[in-house]
Structure formats: C-alpha cells, structure tokens
Amino acid sequence: MAAILPVEIMLTIAAYLDCQEQYALLRAIPLLASQFTYSRHLLATTDDNGNNLVHILAQQGEETLLKSLFPDKDLETSLISGNIIPRLKQMLLTRSINNDGATPLHLAASDGHLGIVDWISKRPDLDLNRQDKSGCTCVERAAKAGHAEVVSLLLNNPNMTVDWNSNQRSNPLCLAADYGHEATLRVILERHGHRISVNSQASYGITALTFSVLRGRMAITDLLIQQKGVNVNAEDHLGNSVLHMAVRSKNEAAIKAILAHPNVNPNMRDWYGHTPLQEAVCIADKTIVKLLLEHSATDANLGNCKKTTPLIKAVQENHHWAVEYLLKWHNIEPDKKDYWGMTALSWAAFLGRKKMVERLLELEEVDPNSLDEDGLTSLALCMQMGWPDVAEVLVKHPDVDINVEDDWGWTPLAHAKNAPRSKSVPLMRLLTEHGATMTLHAEMVVMFNALVDSDIALSLVESIIKCKNLEVYMEDRFGREKTEQAMTDGERGVRALLFRDTRAARMRRDGIEGMLCLEG
C-alpha cells in the first residue's frame, strides 16, 4: 500500500477512519505517524470510551509511534508564542481525557509502560497530580496495578505531590497493600519512605497495615509490622484499630503478629467503646478470645460506652464458653456493673441463663443482692421475666435476700405477681414458701391488668386509693421532691414515676428481643 498510494491520499483516507482503525493503519505503516497533524483533525476522533488515538497508543505501549507522532521539533515549535496549532497538539498528549477522566499518562501508568511514562512525565505543562474521575493519579493507578518501577519513577519526580495523608484519599502504599502487590509496596518502603510514611492514611483513615490485615495478605502484613516507626495501633476515623479489624476479619495470623509487637495496645476502643476482646466475644470466636486473653496487657474488665464488660457481653450473647474463659482470667472482676448498674449475674437472671447464674453464684466476689440503678436485685429481674428454673437457683442460695425492696417499694414477690400469667402463680408460690413478703400498692393492680398504656390507667389508680388524690398518694409513696418533678413533667412524668418507666427499664425492654436466646 505504501508503495502504491501517495502520503496525501493515505492521510485523506485516515481522516475517514475511527481512532482504532487509525491505530491499525499506523501499525501497518509506522512512517505515516510523523504526517499526522492536529490541523487535519486526525487526532480528534474518539471511540465509545472517549479514547483518542494518543490514548490508544499510550495504552498499547506504542512508544515509537508516540514519539513519531510528537517529535521533539514539534515540541520546540509549540513553545513559540502564537503557535496555537502545535500547542493544541501537544495538549492532546498531556491533557486530553477519556470518559473516565484518564489522560494518556494515566493509561500508560496503568499498563506499566515505563518508557512512555518516563517520556510523557518530562513534557512541559504536564500535571503529574491530575486525578481521573475516580480520584486516582497516574502513580496511584500504577500502584493499583502493581507496576513497581513505574511507581518508583513517578515518585522520584519532584513535581509529584505526596500529600495523600492530608487529602485522606488512596495513596500508592495503601493501594499496593490493598491489591496485594508486595514488590510494589517493598519498593515504596525501601526507596521512598522519606516521601510516603508507612503510617500514611487512605480514605476513612485506613493505613496500609489495616488493608493488608483486612485482605488477609500476611506477607505484606509481616513486612509492614517490621518497619521502623509503624503504628500497630493506628485507628481509622471510627476509632477502629488494626487489631479491631483483624478480629472482625477473623485473621488469626495477623492477630498473633500484631500482639507480638512490643508497642501493641490490645485495649484500644472504637467509637462505641468496644475493645478487640468484646468484638471477639460478639463474633463468638474461641481462638481469638483465647489469644487476646493470653496477652499480658489485655484488660478483660474494660467496658464499652455503656460500660458493658466482655463478661456481661458473653452473658448477653449466651456464650457459655466465653463466660468460662473470662472467669478464669487472673484479674477478672465478675461483679462489675454496666451503665444501668446491672452485673453479669443481673443479666444472666434477667435473660434466664440458669447455668450462668449457677456458675456466677459460685464466686465469692459476686454479690447475689447487687442492685441496679432502679434498686432491682437479680431475683427481682428474674421475677419480672418469669424464669422458674433460675428462681429456684436464686432462692436456694443462702445469701440471697428475697425481700429486698427496689426504689418503688417492690419486692421480688411483687414483681412475680406481675410476671407473665402462666408463670406468675408458680413463682409467687415458690417465693412465699421461702418467706417472701410484699406490700400491695394501687398501681400494681393496674400493671397486672396490662392497663399501663391506657388513658384510663391514672384514673384507675386514683379510684383505688383512699384519698382519691393522686398527688397526695404519690407524695406519700415517693416523697415530695420526686412527686413535684413528676407533676412538673405532666402526665408523662406521673406515668414514669408510678409505673417505673426508667431508662434502665426501657433499656431492658428494648434490648430483650435481640438478646434473649433460651437455652435448649
């Protein structure tokens, strides 16, 4: 074809071809590339992805064709003031973007074409830090693809901005860890540690170490942990430490490696106050719980934002094995209270965990009459829910006081009276056989008849009391200060005081469905 058709005719034909066909033409006749000019509009045609001929050549690694298309003499010409056409042609190489916002440099870096990246990166008026539509620069694309030498070349360029940590977006180190490119990560650490910190953060504050742990890439995890100055306690923007992430992903190898680091803090808390140990208890992983408890610095008594300790969480989640593991821990405080004053025993009794109640009552440190913030004992909480087997265990314990009154003057017997109907009578019989007593108050009848939420509830209480004056009755029952506060809050306040609508009661009521799991 070259021997038959003049250049002008071939260029005329090229004007009717799309960019992919033009690329095929140049592949067949490479010498034609030097004749492609911007003025002929031969470089303006794009494919469905927005790629022009320059994009295609860069992506395919056609270094020779690109250099023929953009000879040095044209670059010199474009720098002369007033030479608009040559300048526009040069901009195709440095600034033209496809539908993804990628320049020819982005594409060459993505596919690891080192020579082309080196050549384009030296062009004047080039923005090395330009981002495509996904926010990636050319070096980030190279790191994501695992092209170590391309990454190194670009990081050596003084025009490359390395402020990823301040921008909180993905950076080459994090991308290499995320995509499992050990060689690329090693090159960055060994050659460019002065420009990219081993603790640099990507989006949401995640470090390269966290990425490697989440992805289960142990070779990279080990490499990062060995780095001088690495922060093994790094937190993301939600307070999740590297150890939290290792626990949640059940990465046992990473957990062992992290716990072996001399600077590790196994008691880091996320925004909800959860420690890695609490997370391990929640996901029911015996091996991880054991690994954490074996670390000398682990504090198994730390509570979350609701002061829920790992032991209380184990009771709530009905994990018998976790309860045993924790009770064998050398510094365990089995009677520690949560935000509402409930202990592990309180929760076990409330949720009907008979075996856990029996196990906790064996411990001298456990107070069987411990009160929550409403003054309820474990026995009273058991009566509220109606657990006959748990009640048997509690009433037979020599230290259990079955007549302790809560802050409303209710004894366990009073609570038993208002237990679910099918269980109320057997529970009351059990308590009375052991000497239980109670004082019957007017509101107890209303509660028994399930009328607490009815608009007639307060009227019923008023009709039962002798004085027929609700305020006088409440003052006699609860004192002047509490009564005045309740009256100030209106009907809602009166209901809350009479019918024990406290934050602890609401917490137990709202959380019972998610926590209740009857033993088989």
Automatic annotation (TrEMBL):
Record keywords, A-Z: ANK repeat, Repeat
Residues in ANK repeats: 100-120
Protein origin, superkingdom: Eukaryota
UniProt keyword annotation of Chloroplast present: no
SUPFAM superfamilies documented for this protein: Ankyrin repeat
InterPro entries reported for this sequence: Ankyrin_rpt, Ankyrin_rpt-contain_sf, Dendritic_Spine_Reg/Scaffold
PANTHER family the record matches: PROTEIN VAPYRIN, ROLLING PEBBLES, ISOFORM B
Stated name of the protein: Ankyrin repeat protein
